[in-house]
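Practice problem 4.
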């Protein structure tokens, strides 16, 4: 494995009963990066995250490979997962309340997490827990509170502190800010990315929040109906998307106010005149039990042809560090958002 690669995912499939939720996903997570995974609801992001952690739902069938160093996580026995958990892999879940026990003080829960990996004395574990909570902005005199006494933002900070306790190699954050207001979201994401950087932790960020991706991620992987649609550096993908689906997603992105040409900014966007209304992708994603043949996005795609797109799944192809799975990626207009602008 390339030494720059921390986690290598190959031909990952996750199915639950008749639902083929993840269908042949391959990508690498590189050491030290923030990789965002985006896509509409039901695209398979969370099940991918769970497979990456070696913790798919019990009823799921997982095939393919997720390698971390010498460990294979697909089908890994409990002993392998236990060896990796905390030191190598950790999760920041969507719902901090359900991740914390309601009947134990926050600092005691972190102390127990310290002891589960390091086996130090209770006093030492408590001191480390308090220090970790301080790092995420929770003052020492509040660490003896119970989770319900914290605000949602503080609970999420506590969960981030818990995930980063042992400076794991990789943290997967699954929609870590969903329930928060925009300002708290920004603070939590700032904290998560800065703390990850400080602890040398690589971050996979599952999110719907494209402005946050633009601000915080190095690379982005776009999923549609369980497959990779596009993947590459954020700046490159956000300014020059190659897949029509990505272009459609990006049309919903608020445009930066200042005319600077900074990181991840959408350049060369067409002027939106009064004759246009804000674009959106027409239609809805397919249900995973009733997937169309060929490209799953074809029924919604303005570039789809009448034959190949509806019969042959486009294979991902990589040029200059940027991967796309689309038969017509070379046909995208200079301003891909135009594909989705509707005249009124
Ligand atoms: N435990 C389960 N049993 C049956 N189907 C499931 C289960 N978990 C997920 N699915 C289905 O698998 C598909 C992918 O789900 P997943 O949660 O990975 O999507 P997602 O991209 O994370 O969506 P969201 O952004 O809404 O969280 C969806 O159709 C979902 O309904």
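Answer key:
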């Amino acid at each position: 494995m390339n030494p720059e690669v921390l986690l290598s995912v190959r031909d990952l499939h996750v199915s639950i009963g008749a639902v083929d939720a993840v269908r042949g996903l391959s990508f690498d997570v590189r050491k030290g990066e923030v990789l965002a995974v985006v896509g509409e609801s039901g695209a398979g992001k969370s099940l991918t995250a769970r497979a990456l952690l070696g913790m798919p739902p019990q009823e799921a069938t997982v095939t393919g490979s997720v390698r971390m160093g010498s460990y294979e996580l697909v089908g890994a026995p409990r002993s392998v997962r236990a060896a990796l958990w905390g030191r190598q892999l950790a999760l920041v879940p969507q719902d901090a309340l359900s991740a914390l026990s309601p009947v134990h003080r926050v600092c005691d829960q972190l102390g127990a997490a310290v002891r589960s990996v390091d086996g130090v004395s209770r006093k030492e574990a408590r001191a480390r827990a308090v220090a970790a909570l301080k790092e995420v902005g929770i003052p020492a005199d509040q660490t003896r509170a119970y989770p319900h006494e914290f605000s949602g933002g503080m609970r999420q900070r506590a969960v981030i502190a818990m995930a980063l306790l042992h400076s794991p190699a990789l943290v997967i954050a699954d929609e870590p800010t969903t329930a928060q207001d925009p300002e708290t979201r920004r603070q939590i994401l700032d904290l998560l990315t800065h703390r990850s950087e400080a602890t040398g932790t690589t971050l996979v960020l599952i999110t719907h929040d494209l402005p946050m991706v633009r601000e915080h991620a190095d690379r982005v992987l776009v999923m549609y109906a369980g497959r990779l649609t596009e993947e590459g550096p954020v700046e490159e993908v956000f300014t020059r998307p190659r897949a029509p689906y990505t272009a459609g997603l990006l049309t919903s992105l608020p445009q930066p106010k200042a005319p600077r040409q900074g990181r991840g900014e959408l350049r060369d966007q067409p002027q939106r005149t009064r004759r246009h209304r804000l674009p959106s992708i027409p239609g809805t994603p397919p249900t995973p039990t009733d997937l169309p043949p060929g490209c799953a996005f074809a029924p919604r795609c303005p570039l789809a042809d009448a034959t190949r797109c509806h019969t042959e799944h486009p294979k991902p192809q990589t040029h200059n560090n940027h991967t796309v799975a689309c038969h017509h990626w070379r046909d995208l207009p200079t301003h891909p958002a135009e594909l989705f602008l509707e005249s009124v």
